[in-house]
User: Fold Enoyl reductase (ER) domain-containing protein from Dioscorea zingiberensis.
Amino acid sequence: MWSLTAAHRTSALRRLLRSLSSSTASRAVVLPRFGGPEVLEVRNDVSVPDLKPREVLVRARAVSINPLDLRMRSGYGRSIFEPLLPLILGRDVSGEVAAVGASVSSLSVGQEVFGALHPTALRGTYSDYAILAEDELTLKPPSVTHVEASAIPFAALTAWRALMSTARINEGQRILVIGGGGAVGLAAIQLAAAAGCNVSTTCGSQSIERVLSVGAEQAIDYTTEDIELAIKPQFDAVLDTIGMPETERVGINLLKKGGHYMTLQGEAAALADRYGLTFGIPAATAMLLKKQIQYRYSHGIEYWWTYMRADAEGLDQIRRLSEAGKLKIPVEKTFPITQVREAHEAKEKRVVPGKVVLEID
Ligand SMILES: NC(=O)c1ccc[n+]([C@@H]2O[C@H](COP(=O)([O-])OP(=O)(O)OC[C@H]3O[C@@H](n4cnc5c(N)ncnc54)[C@H](OP(=O)(O)O)[C@@H]3O)[C@@H](O)[C@H]2O)c1
Assistant:
């Protein structure tokens, strides 16, 4: 039985290596200029760079679409990305290891993996072959499909960074997730529930059942209810995935003294786009500092802009929870990668309300 599996694996690996050695080019979705979904181009001749020592080449099977992909396509982050066009979009990936850099020790060719790139990575994952650092990948649980796995890492690492690294939440604390119906919100509810916290959340009416089923104790429909009347205050941490002035005001008012308010809508990229990197980044730093001081003085709380960041320990916990069926991001619809324009349009116009994944054959 063992030799049959090993033989099968060896021939699969040979096939993979052959397909790789025959070319250093691969199919990828390229963004040649900023604009609507129509600017996306599927090209067959996109070069695959040589691996650096700690990098891993992944034969992608599924890549999920994040709001960041849509925003980058439309020009968000242009102060960083414009001089570097054409770009490949995409943060999440699930697939098989096709090759490893000289110093990679934790992964080997043929293993099934999933992971996510940093928000500012230049070569994204919408490609037959994606390149990620070793610590941006982890083994995919066999019980989770590539499509399911590709929906998880970017959203879950964003939630992880806020709740575990910034607020350092603990068992028994009360956590509020504003926008629990989205991918980051759902991940945050599940991570906080797994840590033994009591989770309240706001979401649209169509998401109420879903957020309660993954561990929220209280769900408030933001379209029909007054959040401040519906929720008892004194939260230890608020994760605001929406980050509008009104959600920020409400979130901060509901915190207890010493609590953490974290928004995913930090203004660093927007200010850099408006004023250029030289003036925009210092302006963003000054704005954040001003808000931190202001809220510490007026409300006695800690105010943060939080961003997704690679975190090997976080990714390992995310893998464990996914394997145990305790962390799932439901996938609403899949498209073949060749229909990436249609997929972006469906996500942008909210024709498909939840997670959209591109499948790669
Ligand atoms: N800072 C970072 O590093 C970082 C990383 C990841 C994501 N983000 C940002 O975080 C946001 C969420 O990302 P995502 O991947 O979770 O997006 P998503 O899966 O598209 O979810 C967005 C959800 O927000 C909910 N929503 C909209 N307005 C709301 C309101 N006023 N109150 C409560 N819920 C509301 C909707 O849920 P209902 O269906 O329940 O209405 C929607 O499904 C995006 O803006 C994204 O760009 C930032």
Remarks:
- Residues 200 and 218 are 5 Å apart (CA to CA).
